[in-house]
Specification:
Butyryl-CoA Dehydrogenase, subunit A, domain 3, homodimer, alpha+beta, about 55% helix, three-stranded antiparallel sheet, 3 domains, about 650 residues
């Protein structure tokens, strides 16, 4: 609950709170960003070709400092710290995002695939060179006609028992690799995802190391590469398309951590179920999603820092004769920007929890159970979706809030908006990711069903009682306590204080449980009515997505509330409470129609929430600058001409 | 009300219906766009400098064909048809938008100012040359520190009675002209808005013709011009900043239709009230807003055409073993795209009404009364705001709905999104425009009060009874009939059919009236409580904007319903009814929290509306392609690589 007066914010302490465990890594990254601040202008002024080379050069130099290898084993020149590598990556999102994405492609996707899907022989062969960026690679998973449905991709890797080689082939244009970062110019090696075929039988999607360029940068025979051409943003990254025309690679180039092919062509794997094997392989690549979500959240911080400062310098209209009013003093301007600041804090703390879980799972001495891994993947998917949509919305609103000045590239919104735009699509389309979240909730991350596709999920849910679905969910247990905690018993939704975190949590939890059971009920009744599962799913799809979003928003609020409660008494805690209330109430306001439809919000209470949001914004007005300063965005990254 | 089955759409007839009165002009414009289709690739491939020259060249060539001069008097080489000029401009928005905006700057802003604010001597001196694009000009109104508040701009035009000249001066950097299209490279002449000073007394903002470059393109002495540099989009337009250092121009260069200065320095005007004079001058420039709103709506058509076609070719997931499903068969995909198609139709017809009113007012033989002019300006402001926000939302959603392919520049969304982004800002920031709409509603476009600024408006409204404010509004009269038309008497909101246009209209009208009276009440109680008017306004600002938006959405629905009713029976009428229902119900769904808060929508009815939207989307699925084809976007303008 927020205090009544505007608190005093201790900016350095708040920055330290935000930076958390990895304050040193983040500060070092900020230093690097400042050293390379010139790249922001290069992005505006250089031709696409030149800028690509510039970005490559920066990535190579950063690799030399150790900045980009924190997540790799020490023995191969890495830092041996997953959490640190995520923190470093997130913080790099304050700077040029082509550099960030090139780093992500090289060390996260390409390097991550070698590390996670390969075994000792691959590690020994590639890791040192790729960590130092001597070996540049790409991650060739997505195909033009097969994006989100990776299991359906068309590239084939046929085992030739005679020569003990795999033969990689692109059967049609829909199966060409597409949008592959590093492919158009710089990668010498690709990790290629392809359908493994042995003796005519298909064993599903596996990953292979395929050399695509020779030592002098020439495309190898049998490989065809086309530039994807100019893009909305990220034009410092060389995305391209790759076709394979019977390209032969040694048997040892199969990344064989989860499955292998013997010399004589026998397929072996410790995981019997092919779906489960596939999802286990994909699951090891979860760090990419964690990183992209964090990058979106951090890019939002840059936009908000600039927009708030502009609004504290720019005056418009006001009392005749007197000085014009600062635009941040307008109620509407506060309403546009402050809930976005609150949501940025909320997502930041949720991301911190997620990154912590990632670190724990991937640094664990013992094998982590599958349910925990699936829950992590689900949380990563959901946070990525909300974090990247938040970036799109926030940067756009900040651009508009700066008017014509916001439209000039020198003022940063151009690159921020254009570069982050694809974040909602790559590393998993956000809608598909939320479906993944919903699937996990509806099937309780059940290891025997986690591999189901959407229609399998429909059939699974239809086969069990709705109550069972709901009772298994984590939110169900949380909700059981509500009546004990909040005043009013069953009437808690009408009687609790609006600015009570327990009330807000109860509202979020109630929505999640109700939406989940609603989805389960609809899926069930569709199947009971003998409808085609595809049709049943199609009709419920927005409901499925809604339930997933409600779930993730609940996790975000819990993370924020936990953080505020753990903060020592003082101005910062009070400020965080205001932000936390503002986040929670903004979510409730945006979806108030739903809560009213379901009898959990009265008209008068709904109006009171809107009024409270206005009050919270006015409380934040005096500390708004401190709250964005606490993000710790280096001045050079806010190099907005209009703030000069 | 929509029929139950999917109707058969007659695409050519629907295109003809959309094209309306100006079908020939629109078709001729489409032909021109196809002739210049190569510019879409030029925009992606050329350097900024080269592309600017290319765009200039196209504009000059188009001028030669008469395409761009339709709104000017025949005597000066124009077409003498305001309505045709708007239709031509709107249709040009299907093509490259730098060309469009350069046309808008040259012929709409610069040419429009000379035509509307000048008199015979200016017309004779400039119109023929500017219509043929021999004379290139710019419209120097906006200043860095004075955007939306034009009355507060800082540039000074001091009359020097000795030399019978005006001396134009930029007093400080906040008063430099900024974002001025055509200024950085091509304009030889500027229409400059400046504070007229005579003998130390200020007479307010007036417009002056100021030569800024000589015959060889060199910037004239006393003028300083700086390039605004790269922008988010529209990089074929040369925006720049201009400073004036005591630049002298002859007395005759004052555009003197509404006010003049005699040789001896006496200020004369037929309009006594300086505020009224200022708003009368600005009001003559309303065509620019009409054109930008129409351009936003038409750019949306391009995006929707591409996204729907992509979704009819791309398959993803589906029943195991079988072919994957078309993504347009997913309920969520329909939910994402179809309400945007419906809203595009709705806005198109609203724009048609607006353009018709513009034509009527500006082609009238007799002087049109001031109230009608103010109502036109208000409608133009509101439609521009909704049309341009719609463009931003729609293009973005279409980009995301095409995934990674949507991110490639070759697939059109890049330029569409980047170029239209500033539409929400230029020709009036959308939020400021909606405030203008609200002011008109609250003061009944009263000529003696129409000139009030926001705080004047607060004081004015506070001074009269709330009932008086409401009774004067047009919506009040419309609402009085509701009980006679709909079943259920006072319970109409619960008893009418959801898909009855009268019910939908009643809901929109009720919201508008209620929001307006709410705003009036809040303003009044704030002033009664002796609060500072600025604070009162700031606190109500989102409510003010909300009321204006409700008003414009009502006008849009009325235009759509009128059009559907006037359409002959048949498949097209049925299709339009589905779209009209979908538009209306989507608006109600989006704001259903508000209607529930105010007792006009029950929970069960609200849920029924959401279900009906799903049903309407499914009805549209078979005719979706026909509905976007009917927009008549030339195939060359949909030159999306991914559709090939």
């Amino acid at each position: 609950m927020a205090d009544s007066a505007a608190p005093v914010v201790d900016v350095p302490a708040l920055t330290a709170l935000l930076d958390g465990t990895y304050v040193e890594v983040r500060n070092l990254t900020r230093k690097r960003l400042v050293e390379y601040a010139g790249v922001l202008e290069d992005a505006r002024e250089m031709s696409r070709e030149k800028f690509r080379e510039r970005v490559k050069q920066i990535v190579v130099e950063l690799a030399g400092t150790g900045q980009t290898g924190l997540g790799f084993p020490v023995g191969y020149g890495g830092g041996g710290d997953i959490g640190a590598s995520v923190a470093a990556f997130e913080t790099m999102a304050l700077g040029d995002l082509s550099v960030l994405v090139k780093v992500g492609v090289q060390f996260g996707l390409f390097g991550g695939a070698i590390l996670q899907l390969g075994t000792q022989r691959h590690h020994d062969a590639y890791l040192s060179d790729l960590v130092s960026a001597k070996l540049m690679g790409c991650f060739a998973m997505t195909e033009t006609g097969h994006g989100s449905n990776v299991q359906a991709l068309g590239t084939v890797a046929r085992y030739d028992v005679e020569t003990r080689e795999f033969v990689i082939t692109t059967p049609d244009d829909a199966s060409r690799k597409d949008y592959i970062g590093n492919a158009a110019a710089h990668a010498s090696t690709a990790v290629v995802f392809a359908q493994l075929e042995i003796g005519g039988a298909s064993e599903g999607v596996h990953a292979f190391v395929v050399p695509i360029r020779d030592g002098r940068g020439r495309v190898r025979s049998g490989v065809r590469i086309e530039d994807d051409g100019p893009k909305i943003g990220l034009n410092g990254v060389d995305n391209g398309r790759i076709w394979f025309d019977d390209v032969r690679i040694p048997r040892e180039n199969l990344l064989n951590r989860y499955a292998d092919v013997t010399e004589t062509g026998v397929y072996v794997s410790d995981i019997d179920n092919p779906d489960r094997r596939f999802f286990t392989m994909l699951g090891t690549l979860v760090q990419g999603r964690v990183c992209v979500g964090g990058a979106g959240i951090n890019a939002s911080k840059v936009a908000l820092s600039i927009a708030v400062k502009y609004a504290l310098g720019r005056r418009q209209f006001g009392n005749p004769g007197g000085e014009e009013e600062l635009i941040l003093d307008y109620g509407l301007h506060q309403r546009r920007l402050f809930p976005l600041i609150a949501r940025t804090y909320a997502l930041h703390f949720a991301q911190e929890v997620l990154a912590g879980q990632l670190h724990a799972v991937f640094s664990a001495a013992d094998e982590v159970d599958e349910r925990t891994r699936r829950a992590l993947e689900s949380r990563a998917a959901g946070t990525k979706a909300l974090g990247t949509w938040h970036a799109s919305t926030t940067i756009q609103e900040c651009r508009e809030a700066c008017g014509g000045a916001g439209y000039l590239s020198a003022n940063r919104f151009d690159a921020l908006r254009a570069d982050t735009d694809v974040f909602t699509t790559f590393e998993g389309d956000n809608h598909i990711l939320l479906q993944l979240v919903a699937k996990g909730l509806l099937t309780d991350y059940s290891s025997s069903f986690g591999e189901l596709d959407q229609l399998g999920m429909v059939r699974f849910v239809a086969g069990i009682a709705v109550d069972t679905v709901v009772e298994r969910t984590a939110v169900h247990k949380l909700l059981e306590r509500v009546k004990d905690i909040l005043p009013g018993g069953d009437d808690w939704a009408q009687e609790a204080e609006i600015v009570d975190s327990e009330y807000q949590l109860a509202m979020f939890r109630w929505r999640e449980e109700h939406m989940l059971s609603g989805v389960a009920r609809r899926l069930k009744s569709g199947i009971d009515a003998k409808l085609d599962p595809a049709e049943v799913f199609s009709k419920c799809q927005d409901h499925v997505i809604g339930a997933a979003r409600a779930h993730v928003e609940r996790l975000v609020l819990e993370a924020f509330v936990d953080k505020v409660r753990a903060t020592p008494e003082g101005g910062n805690k009070s400020a965080l409470y205001i932000l936390c209330d503002l986040y929670a109430l903004s979510v409730i306001e945006a979806d108030r129609g739903w809560w009213m439809e379901h009898g959990r919000l009265s008209s008068s209470r709904s109006k009171a929430i809107s009024r409270e949001i206005g009050d919270l914004c006015r409380k934040l007005r005096p500390i708004a600058e401190g709250l964005v300063d606490a993000f710790g965005v280096p001045a050079e990254m806010q190099a907005a001409e209009m703030l000069a």
